[in-house]
Amino acid sequence: MDSELKEEIPVHEEFILCGGVETQVLKCGPWTDLFNDQSVKRPKLLIFIIPDSNAQEIKDIYGLNGQIEHKLAFLRTHVPKDMKLVLIGHSIGSYFTLQMLKRVPELLVLRAFLLFPTIERMSESPNGRIATPLLCWFRYVLYVTGYLLLKPCPEKIKSLLIRRCLQLMNLENEFSPLNVLEPFCLANAAYLGGQEMMEVVKRDDETIKEHLCKLTFYYGTIDPWCPKEYYEDIKKDFPEGDIRLCEKNIPHAFIIHFNQEVANMIADSLKDDLSKM
């Protein structure tokens, strides 16, 4: 995709109340309101990206089930029922995607991409064996330590630390440091992570089988959250499925340095589906 085309795609940010919490929404394209916009600019397809972490309040919204319901609440309240969807889930977002298909099978999903999917045996993965004791057994120690260290820290110091880390990773122009070191945000992330380790255990083969024709799995060869063994197992159980193994050594956290490569792969995979619309 050339630079001229990138500049033509408008991107705007909104904060909405969804499920009782303020939710950041990034919208790409010449549209703002899918319900009320009936012009030619209204898209026929919505690509809904579900990253790694509703008129009614959602119980335990920062937990695993709450996060799934939060995504469904957004679709119910901001996306018309007749809107065709492409779902893109990364990491635990892949688990959310499968659960959304299971809970609301009537969603008009053309394709769902599950990128580096943490959909099974999370606590048994190389990273899971390290994260499980930290997030499940010593979570409150992390809470107290984070609060004592970060709460009194001035915002300028936090911003300086984050910017310095991003500079070392050559990301100073890519990410905003907002709220990254807020104790409340870190506590919520640790809480969700602990539930992931405990609850994401058995692969949901029933849901995968029901929606296999619209699923694309993309596993990594160097992924410590879902190792190559998991790819081999699911490939053996669903040989007819679109289950791919990365050949470019792209890491689990691809968004940092390999976002364009993954975006190109998804765009190429969608060409046939989009040509039929």
Overall description:
Helix 2 links the parallel strand 3 and strand 4. The chain has two domains: 172 residues, 3-Layer(aba) Sandwich (Rossmann fold); 68 residues, no CATH class. The protein contains ten helices and seven strands. It has 277 residues and is an alpha/beta fold. 44% of the residues lie in helices and 16% in strands. The strands form two sheets. The chain has a five-stranded parallel β-sheet, with helices on both faces. Strands 1-2 form a two-stranded antiparallel sheet. The N terminus is likely disordered. It comes from Rhinopithecus roxellana. Its main location: endoplasmic reticulum. This is Lipid droplet-associated hydrolase. One of its GO terms (biological process) is cholesterol homeostasis.
Topology, element by element:
Layout: H1 3-8, E1 11-18, E2 21-28, E3 45-50, H2 64-78, E4 84-90, H3 92-103, E5 109-115, H4 126-137, H5 139-150, H6 155-168, H7 183-199, H8 205-211, E6 215-219, H9 228-237, E7 242-245, H10 259-275
Parallel strand pairs: 3-4, 4-5, 5-6, 6-7
Antiparallel strand pairs: 1-2
Helix pairs in contact: 2-3, 4-7, 5-7
